[in-house]
Specification:
Blueprint (H helix, E strand, L loop, with lengths): L1 E4 L4 H12 L5 E4 L10 H4 L9 E4 L2 E4 L1 H11 L10 H15 L3 H4 L1 H10 L4 H25 L12 H15 L8 H14 L12 H6 L1 H13 L7 E4 L9 E3 H7 L7 E3 L5 E4 L1 H11 L4 E4 L14 H4 L13
Parallel strand pairs: 1-2, 5-9
Antiparallel strand pairs: 1-3, 3-4, 6-8, 7-8
Helix pairs in contact: 1-3, 1-8, 4-8, 8-9
Bound molecules: glutathione.
The site of glutathione has 15 residues, from α1, α3 and α6.
């Protein structure tokens, strides 16, 4: 199977989740929406809608994410995306459509472009429009999840509605929509996130303050997200050992390299013009700024834990540290 899709397209992401739940392999055919590849000749030749996702199964082409998901469910029934009973199926489809028909079409790329480019709506008003439909649309989903609470949208296994919910919440977070008013939605989302962190790829980055300021983490994150079609909010980051904030004395050039917004990570040193820098805090902050939500580690100080780590600054003797990340 081939899936024509774009990593940031939520309709594509629905199908990728469905394929992952069913353990189906597919060839990833990228269609870059921001570069308008959806309207370019190569894609238009196979796509009636000029939209992603588009699934090619042998010689057959299927568009519309919900139609694709139901097709996959019928051709690969286990695990099922829809419940066995008619009422359950109706509830799951209604939840899916409450997002796919009532929220998403109001906010997708061509609608937003029409607002700004054809109707002269400002960027701020466009964002307000976006947030309005997401925040109000999610209330409908919230009422249903509150009335019949379960681990996932419907019952104890993820299904069709969950495939639709996850990308919508990532979009909500990306556009800084309110989500406190939909606690059941966010509870289900958290359960799903945990299940979707499937180890499709790993990345490792090493940097001192210069590399950190120059964007080593952001570049690694971007490469990992692109390679695995994973949004930053779904990435789990762990910070290894580094010199801690009570030991890392730096000059003003370090504080300046991170800019005024990072001034909270620098405390005045004993000597004028020197600062105590919180390197792990800066790394955590830079990852958060890039949309990473799951960050752990960062508590080990190489300088103050001699039984564990060497520290050239402490002992004037060099050594080696290693950290490993792998896929199982
Ligand atoms: N209802 C369609 C929506 C498809 C859709 O709007 N896809 C977006 C990406 S999420 C797209 O291709 N947008 C390109 C554009 O708006 O020009 C589905 O569920 O597949």
């Amino acid at each position: 199977m081939e899936l024509f899709n774009y990593f940031r397209s939520s309709a594509s992401y629905r199908v990728r989740i469905g394929l992952a739940l069913k353990g189906l392999r597919f060839d990833y055919k990228p269609v870059h929406l921001v570069r308008n590849e959806q309207t370019a000749e190569a894609f238009a030749a196979v796509s009636v809608a000029r939209l992603v996702p588009l699934l090619k199964d042998e010689e057959s082409l299927i568009h519309q994410s919900l139609a694709i998901l139901e097709y996959l469910d019928e051709t690969h029934p286990t695990p099922a995306l829809l419940p066995a009973d008619p009422l359950g199926r109706a509830r799951v489809r209604a939840l899916a459509l409450d997002i796919a028909c009532e929220i998403h079409p109001l906010n997708n790329l061509r609608v937003l472009r029409y607002l700004t480019q054809s109707m002269g709506v400002s960027e701020d008003d466009k964002d307000r429009w976006y947030r309005h439909w997401v925040e109000s649309g999610l209330e409908t989903v919230e009422r249903q999840l509150a009335a019949q609470p379960s681990t996932f949208c419907h019952g104890e296994a993820p299904g069709l509605a969950d495939c639709i919910l996850v990308p919508q919440i990532f979009n909500a977070q990306r556009f800084e929509c309110r989500t406190e008013h939909v606690p059941h939605v966010m509870r289900v989302f958290a359960n799903l996130l945990f299940s979707c962190a499937d180890g499709r790829g790993v990345g490792a980055a090493h940097a001192g303050w210069r590399g950190l300021a120059a964007g080593v983490l952001e570049n690694t994150l971007a490469a990992l997200c692109e390679a695995t079609s994973t949004p930053p909010a779904e990435i789990h980051a762990w910070l290894g050992a580094c010199i801690g904030p009570a030991a890392f004395e730096v000059g003003d050039e370090v504080r300046q390299a991170f800019g005024a917004a990072a001034s909270g990570f620098f405390q005045p040193g004993v000597v004028a013009g020197k600062w105590w820098a919180d390197l792990a805090g800066l790394a955590r902050w830079r990852l958060q700024q890039s949309g990473v939500r799951h960050i752990s580690g960062g508590g080990w100080c190489t300088h103050s834990e001699p039984s564990r780590f060497f520290s050239f600054r402490r002992d004037r003797v060099t050594g080696r540290h290693a950290a490993a990340v792998w896929r199982r």
